[in-house]
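Appendix B. Extra example for self-study. Work through it before the problem class; the solution is given directly after the inputs so you can check yourself.
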Amino acid sequence: MKIVFLGLTGVHQALAAGCYYLSRESGENLDLEGFADLELEKAGFPILLGQDRNNNLVYALGSETDILVLKRTIDELAAVLGETGELLVWPITIPRQKFLLWLTAIAGFIGAGQWYHNCSRYIIKKEIPLIISQVDKYQDQLQQN
Amino acid sequence: MIIIYHCFGGSHSSVTAAAIHLDLLSSDKPPAKEEMLALPYFDKTTENDFGSLRFMGFDRENNAVYILGKKSQSDRFSNVLLGVADLLGKKEEVIAVNTMGRVNWSMKLGGFTSRRIGIAGMGRPVVIEGTRKAFWDLVNLVEMTKLRILNRRQYQ
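Solution. Structure tokens for the complete assembly:
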């Protein structure tokens, strides 16, 4: 099975959530590979983060607009391809996600320097408890099933 | 193989391209207003249809053709779809086609007025005229897509 953490951007809360899920460490310094990586975000492909203890591959992905719209597309695409149940999509939402999306858009125009990384880190750091609570909830659901 | 034509609302350019692909519209001449309105989903979608894959039919080679409204997701959306298909081990079975590059201002304005504001009486004639203007660009896109399908088949 594959697990996809879905955020408005793939390289912020979705990536932090996936890394927390894999390591069980909050990673508050956010020294995570791929964090605020504009090229990864622009490419649009799911970002492989690693493998959990049950051998599930874990990914992060950004939706750009409406997270639930993309979740629906992914679920329906899996169904059309006859692979229902192969993919778990876990949306991660935080209050400042639209601001992060705007920052990412601006960085796309003027270039993503240290300012982009620092702003991203500052925002996500504040949201770590919320991200962790969402990951824990999904993990509980997974264990119950 | 499945072919997904995607645009903002999944209501005009993607429907028209899919209809050309499926020979529901002739690729020899721009369609009449009545032909367009007779197409499934043309200028009929609602807010609830965003993100939903809607089946349009099977083409001559038995490929399933779908349309999709993706909201304002950018060009990378095709990569998102291919990436997800790759996770499922079916990357070779999916072709994603962005029709937004063929959308003109009349289509944007008419589509917004008809679908988003909900004044179909005002927006529909504008979007139909815009679609007629964009018709040859959409035919070209469909032809390119059919070549992609042929190429994909040759390497399978």
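Self-check: The longest strand of chain B covers residues 2-7. If your reasoning did not lead you there, revisit section 3.
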